[in-house]
Amino acid sequence: MTAVPVAVAWGSATDVGRKRSLNEDSHLAAPPLFLVADGMGGHQAGEIASATVIAEFARLIGRPSLTVELVQTTLHEARRRVDALPDGAGAGAGTTLAGVIVADIDGEGYWLAVNVGDSRTYRLSEDVFEQISVDHSVVQELIDAGQLDAASAARDTRRNVITRALGAGSDGEADYWLLPAEQGDRIMVCSDGLPTEIDEARIDLILRTETHPQAAAERLVREAVDAGGRDNVTVLVIDALDVRVRGGRDSAQTIPSADMNEDVREDTLPRTRARGAHS
After folding, report:
1. With 258 labelled, which of 7, 115, 228, 270 sits at a CA distance of 20 to 30 A?
2. Per-residue pLDDT tens for 228-263?
3. Which residues of 138-167 are buried (b: 16+ CB within 10 A; e: fewer)?
4. CA 137 – CA 39 distance, rounded (Å)
5. Residues whose CB falls within 8 Å of the CB of residue 64, separated by 6 or more in sequence, listed in order
6. Going along 25-88, which residue ranges are E strands?
7. 3-state helix, strand, coil in the chain (%, to 5)
């Protein structure tokens, strides 16, 4: 049994792209945290906002796992620090935040996914590639309302307008999901500069083709830049090498959490019950 809930290997890559003069993305790739923050505000303000959030979470590096409550507390403090940035040092700026954190639920290894904004988290598991996070964007709201299809969304001029952020005058809450981790899982976290340039079929193919997570992250960034590089691009790839599971239970589907402020056990099904569950 692994000494940590989820033993991982990972890779990370980032690029300013071809159109921007400054990389406003920040990221953290160190167990138990794998996070991407995409700053907004321009004139270095976005860079400061994203770096501020990542710096707050970096205090937690080195722990075997984090609790939901600690992640929520840290996110609250990160938001407070962004909101308190002074004039000339990021005031009014904001940032997205997305990624996964290793969690221990009743002695088993889980992914705790978090999302604010339109940076994304995907999982490739048991030959199924899926987006875990749900964009907080005008376009996603139109899709959910049945007013826009996926093909039209990719070309819509409002695709970069987000509805939740840390800072930028937003008080929108983060979404959280708890996913039972499985040996062989491959998680990818990215800023929106990746899916803007490369479609999900191509991302899926690269994640299946490149066996090492660092090679996969570098190739995804390189192809996004080669395809146009209209925005900063950041990619993290995390592989689950070993997972603590009591009794060797079956793998499970993603279990989204309806409200992580409630007792987490009410929103997370055991592995033996989770298959086929829907929220």
Report:
1. 7
2. 999 999 999 999 999 999 865 444 333 444 444 443
3. bbbebbeeeebeeeebeeeeebeebebbbb
4. 15
5. 3, 4, 5, 31, 32, 102, 104
6. 25-30, 33-40
7. 25, 30, 45
A 10 A CB-CB count for 70 gives 14
Q: Find all residues with CB under 8 Å of 97, minimum gap 6, and list them.
A: 35, 36, 37, 53, 75, 78, 114, 115, 116, 117, 119, 166, 174
Q: Which pTM does this prediction carry?
A: 0.86
Domains of the chain: 6-135+162-266 (3.60.40.10)
Distance CA 44, CA 194 (A): 21
Torsion angle of the four alpha carbons 70, 89, 38, 167, in this order, in degrees rounded to the nearest 10: 60
- The distance from CA 90 to its chain's CA centroid, rounded to whole angstroms, is 23
Six-digit token string for 171: 């008080």
